[in-house]
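I am writing to request your help with a piece of structural work I have in hand. I am sending you one protein, given as its amino acid sequence and as whole-number tokens for its backbone shapes. Kindly check, if you would, that the fold set down in the tokens agrees with what the sequence suggests. You will find the record immediately after this paragraph:
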Amino acid sequence: MDTEQEEFRKRVAALPLKKVKELQQKLGLKLFQKMMHGDPKAEERERKREEEDEEETPENKFKRENRMRPREVSCKKPVSVYRNVYGENTRVGRKKGFDPRFDARCGEFDAEEHEKDFGFLDGIRKNEKEILKKEYNQVRKEDPEKAARLKKAILAMENREKSRKEVAMKREVIEEIRETNIERMNQGIKPIYVSNGEVKRRQLEKKFQSLKKGGKLKKYMERKAKKVDRKDRRPEV
């Protein structure tokens, strides 16, 4: 107990109970208890520090000018031979698992090669879509709720298929432009640089040619016209 705390306790002891209550309300209960009885946590921390100092052996005890400074470590202790070569915050000696599809150490992702390697999935998706269509036709009248879920799944599969076809068509257009530029450079002619808008225009031309060849162009244009007509009829907000 320090001198200030002892004087404070003597002054409080000389005051009447009413004045003590007023002083307690003015200082607050926490500060009043601290002034009267001291800080038990500080005493506990000091006691633990003294116990730690007593437990230290003469071999590993190093003098420090300030208790808050880091402790010195003996250089006689050998360093581990394991090193973390991956530069990650992992435990030394243990490798962290990684996914080769998204890891730079396994090379760059090639979308064209990926499509070639997993091209067999197109046939599986087609069979799955046919199975869903048959099931949809069977339960369309008996179970409308299940039919709605099946219809939603079929539309999602068709939309993903359309997206894959558009990506493949765009890749074909870019490949054609690249081959044309290679031929021009072999002939000593300056290559042409095509904008994204031009790539999209050529992609649409290729799409129309494909639809015309399959006899689906007329149906596609009618559906497109209906969509534009519905958009024009929307009321302005």
Summary: Residues 126 and 147 are 19 Å apart (CA to CA). The chain has a mean pLDDT of 79. The first helix runs from residue 3 to 14. The chain is about 65% helix and 0% strand.
